[in-house]
Amino acid sequence: MPPKRRNHDIIEVENVGMDVDAEPDSDSEEEARRRSRNRRSKSQRKAKQVSEDEDEDEEEEEDEPPRRRGRRKTTKTDEDETPQRRGRGKRTKPQDSDEDEEGDKRRAARKGSKASKKKAAKETSDEESEEEKVGRKKAGRAVSKKEKEEQNKEQKGNVKGKDGENKDKKKKKKMSSSSSSSSSDSDEESLSEGEIAALKEQVEEKKKLIATLRNKPWRMNKRLSLLKEAQDFVEKFEGALGKGKGRRLYAFKVMMTKKLIKFNRDFENFKTACIPWERKIKEVESHFGSSVASYFLFLRWMYGLNLVLFGFMFGLVVLPEVLMGLPYGSIPRKTVPRDEEDTAMDFSVLFDFGGYCKYSILFYGYYNNDRTIGVLQYRLPLSYLLTSVGVFGYSLLVVIRTMARNANEGGDGGDEGEFIFSWKMFTSWDYLIGNPETADNKYASITTSFKESIVDEQENQKDENIHLRRFLRVFANFLILCSLGGSGYLIYFVVKRSQEFAKMDPKTLTWFENNEVEFVMSLLGLVCPPLFETIAELEDYHPRIALKWQLGRIFALFLGNLYTFLFALFDEVTAKLETEKSIKNATEWALHQYYANYSSFYNTTDVPPPKVAPADVIRGPCWETGVGREFVKLIVSDVQVTYLTILVGDFARAFIVRFLNYCWCWDLEAGFPSYGEFDISGNVLGLVFNQGMIWMGAFYAPGLVGMNVLRLLTSMYYQSWAVMACNVPHERVFKASRSNNFYMGLLLLVLFLSLLPVVYSMMTLAPSFDCGPFSGQEKMYDVVIETIDQDLPAFIGNIFIYASNPGLIMPAILLMILAIYYLNTVSKAYQQANTDLKKKMQMAREDEKNRRNNKDSTNQVMKDLEDLMPDKSLAPPPAEEEKPPEVVIDKSVKPTKTKPGTAEKGVNVQKEVSLAAPNPRRPVTRAPGPRGGPPGNTRSPQPQPGKGRGQGAAPRR
Amino acid sequence: MGNKQTIFTDEQLDAYQDCTFFTRKEILRLHSRYHELAPHLVPMDYTNEPDCKLPLALIVDMPELKENPFRNRIVESFSEDGMGNLSFNEFVDMFSVLSEMAPRELKAIYAFKIYDFNVDNYLCKEDLEKTLNRLTKEELTPEEVELVCEKTIEEADLDGDNKLSYADFENMISRAPDFLSTFHIRI
């Protein structure tokens, strides 16, 4: 039985483990030995028992491995399991001297291993009792409970089964062995602890299998049947686990996990059912490939984010104020002032977010500064501040989490140059494409990219006039810097002018003068990117690099514009603060006058508050509302400009090209105007900056988030319609995967940059005295301090005081810096290890190649090394020939002298050497007799049993 | 809602959800797509697991696959008989592997199968030539094809046997930045 023979060897080596001096002469055996060595440590740990009659054991062990193998091969081993199990009891195999010899060896080795573990060799009687003990313990872990009449044997069998299991960690095998147990296990009450543990392990195993089944590359039918099997098993045995008190608890736990799984699945189903626009995106995807679709995915993601932010803002700030706060017209800040009342409902004013809009919940100024409102004692000012901060915190968390996830998925992609052609070959087709036109474009672009690579490969890009190109690049950058500076100045100028306009009578101003800032900003956003693109032509970069530059420049433009706008705005704010101060003083003075007059006139100290209609009260400019209005106006004009551009630039163009083509001098579709392409980078950047403005503006205008949700919703439909109706697929289809995190990085940067001004205004600027939730406070964050002081127990206040102590903050910062430094170092070390490993792989690969090709190493370093090696042909050959046998003889004598407990050591060393050179004394070391021989004889085969066995086994093979 | 109960039992749906990356809704959608392909062949009632297979020609006509140069290979790789006849189970399996949720390792295995035209578990030059010709609609000259195939093997072949084994392929594809985003069909 050839296979059995082999397994026999394996098991033999396995039991004796690392210590045995097996020297298999075939490759497969060597491999088997290596495997068994790895496993052996485990088996040793678990299978501590020493059987009393090793004969039996041995037989069983011999039976075991083939059975294991068989199991591994077939999944439905339940049937063939049984006979094999039965067979274990009897001696089914013919014995021969070889096996006896091996038995001897094993016994010796087992003693040895035992000695190494327990420091003492046990007598047979001792072993007997111990066997009973350990065996009982072990039996639990084992599976089969068949053949009750042969208790003793059975236990051992179980132990062995366990052994076998340890050898092979394959899941399937475990499954089959466990299912065999399932068939036999009728008396669950009598399960011992160990059995329960084993069962538990299997159940866990099954559960794991169920959870990971979908990741297995198996056929569906197989997966389904495996799933059923596993589920049945879990169903059957889960209840049997646990005992007494633990049992009920366990049952409860199992029930809960089941419910949890079910709930999770339902939740997952619900979640996917909630994801909108799957169809739309698929349509776009199949028409335009993954790059355009990535914009829409981004848009959808943004929509989700904004929906959550809107939930926060609306639920925690707007709704409480509407439901529980004072109604409109009750106090000055919630009333349109007298002099604006006439025009407050005019469309032009409303469209400008003046009039009633300005004094509505959309803006900061509307919110009252009562500490608590309503029956719930809701602390609105505090919630306003915390929600605004929370919006930032949540966004930051989400963005970073998404980035991390993207980074995980993106593959390491470390060395770009390594797999140029392979990647092109295997990943360039976009499986999403389902439109013939796009497919044609894709074919064309793949062909071009291949041709480009071939050209690159053939001639390593020669630069004909490097000086001209350098000059042109510098020149282009200069031009772009100029236009950036120009646009920044223009915005500053316009904002300043608008401040002057604001001081004038609004009726004398034209519409353009009112909306100059927004108009100019949108115009710049519209004109500059194409201008940059034109300038970038000068540079003559590779399109992908050019795209990156373009993105970077547009980003700089938007950022510069936004920040100029902000600085101008803050100028305005400081001016407003001045006027506010004077107005505040004036009102206070008037109030004082009133009180003085009243008390002197009526001669009473009980002065009622002055009876002035809320509309008539003198009030400050409320700079927060002003800032909020600016943001809202900016967003609205941005939306208008974007939508108009799509309508004119894409739709009208497509319309003209399509229908005027019948009566035109040249081919409009193929020639000059043609159809527009979808501008991915511009659109994504637009979205990112829009979001930045939302983040900044949300503090001053809580309604802004809601408006943004509407905007994103409409633009999803509008743009997906526009792109399907008027755009053509890109001629060069870019891939989106890499830029995905690039967009996220931009978003993160914008988030951070928009956080700055908001936090600045929270911490340093004084809030308006007569509007908004923080009126009356010195600084906005005083709300928090006030809450801590008044509403929380004193010790928490103390904690806060300590926590905000510079003495504590400084060490904290220091600690963080240290942590960053440490993590940085660690990551560098990993990187180093990574590159080292890569280098090693490269070396191995080249080595392998060279060996195959039988030619000299191509690696220069290796060549040099080889040159440095001593010339082999010059060395005297006989000296090398003679040495090894001497060593072997020397070592092979040693083990016979050493004690059994330490025998392995010498043997171990010997093995190494005997591997190096065959032992010449082979015939002598072949053990002729069975184990009955003297100890010396028993051990004598050890020096080169591998050889001996190899010889013995060879004929049978 | 009543519709759902007649197509699959709850257990079947749960089993499918355990075995694939799809949710209930998507599995039902898949069934309706499968049904659409051949309304007279595919029963609406799958509770007793009818034995029904659709031929390759019908499946590659789906809009999701129609433009794909490897459509025949995809379908063949997922059919148990290797001829491209797909039962509903295999159909679901195919889109599960190609779905967004499937892990890279699983996708790599099937990508390897797809590109292995002659089903010998190696990507040899012949396979690469076929792949390349399908990708470029045979617009490259034979010399160029030769060069590209040679370069590909040179790049990715780790053991130097002049063909790509799965290990080579996996090593190469696991670093490809675009693999996950492009080896993906939305259903």
From TrEMBL, chain B:
Main location: membrane
GO terms classed as biological process: calcium ion homeostasis; camera-type eye development; mechanosensory behavior; neuromast development
Coiled coil: none
SUPFAM superfamilies: EF-hand
InterPro entries named among the record's database cross-references: CIBP, EF-hand-dom_pair, EF_Hand_1_Ca_BS, EF_hand_dom
Spans traversing the lipid bilayer: none
Subcellular location: Cell membrane, Sarcolemma; Cell projection, Cilium, Photoreceptor outer segment; Cell projection, Stereocilium; Cytoplasm
GO cellular component: cytoplasm; photoreceptor inner segment; photoreceptor outer segment; sarcolemma; stereocilium
Domain (EF-hand): residue spans on this chain: 103-138, 144-179
Record keywords, A-Z: Calcium, Cell membrane, Cell projection, Cytoplasm, Magnesium, Membrane, Metal-binding, Repeat
The keyword Membrane belongs to this UniProt entry's keyword annotation: yes
UniProt GO molecular function: calcium ion binding; magnesium ion binding
Protein name: Calcium and integrin-binding family member 2
Taxonomic path: Eukaryota, Metazoa, Chordata, Craniata, Vertebrata
